[in-house]
């Protein structure tokens, strides 16, 4: 089992944190939606593939949890999390979804945000989640399914859509793995919130290549897309700002 090591890169880890920030309101709306699937007050929360810790810190701020554990295999991403998203109720731990370094039956809520397509062994990860959640605890998968690749980023880098069609699982793939591990499907939905107030802000974020997917493009391809995005951002100065929304699919399953 070889894991995706893209996030071990310190440059990407720093760029990821800065380039994937979203407006406070959007982060709060997302966090509250995710937290709404916890079926008890003061839930114990785990984020698998926590990255730079944005959702761990947000959960600690807005969900009144008993504790939050953020697990990630990348030391570089966790260093950013500790530096920028520390909180007294959040503990960051190094580990992978397929062998989680936590006790069985401990958590009420597990979040996997933008991580499911990185997992080398999804069925094994689903079994691990069944182990660490208490019966009835919820796992929330926040992702983009292969059948809905409609983000704005593809307008500027169309080859990313082809690459992501190969990389991202379908809804059926994910539901199949979780139900095979004994989970019950509670909800399949999607939700969109602004990630940038206008194209200029969006451009300023993407200029640092803050996502591992940009590593699959040639420097020329990347510059070409950025050039088109900059031109549209300049035009927007005349027409007025248009917020950039990002939609994510959400699967919520409950543990056996
Ligand atoms: C795109 S980032 C998402 C970070 C965060 N959850 C978010 O939504 O901003 C993907 C993260 O998944 C982690 N990852 C990669 N392989 C993993 C695995 N096998 N188990 C757990 N996390 C993994 C990477 O190190 C990276 O931090």
TrEMBL record:
Its EC number is 2.1.1.-. Keywords: Methyltransferase, Transferase. It holds the Pfam family Methyltransf_11. GO terms for biological process: methylation. It comes from the Bacteria. InterPro entries: Methyltransf_11, SAM-dependent_MTases_sf. GO terms for molecular function: methyltransferase activity. Residues 46-140 form the Methyltransferase type domain. PANTHER family: 2-METHOXY-6-POLYPRENYL-1,4-BENZOQUINOL METHYLASE, MITOCHONDRIAL, METHYLTRANSFERASE. This is Class I SAM-dependent methyltransferase. The lineage of its organism: Bacteria, Bacillati, Actinomycetota, Actinomycetes, Kitasatosporales.
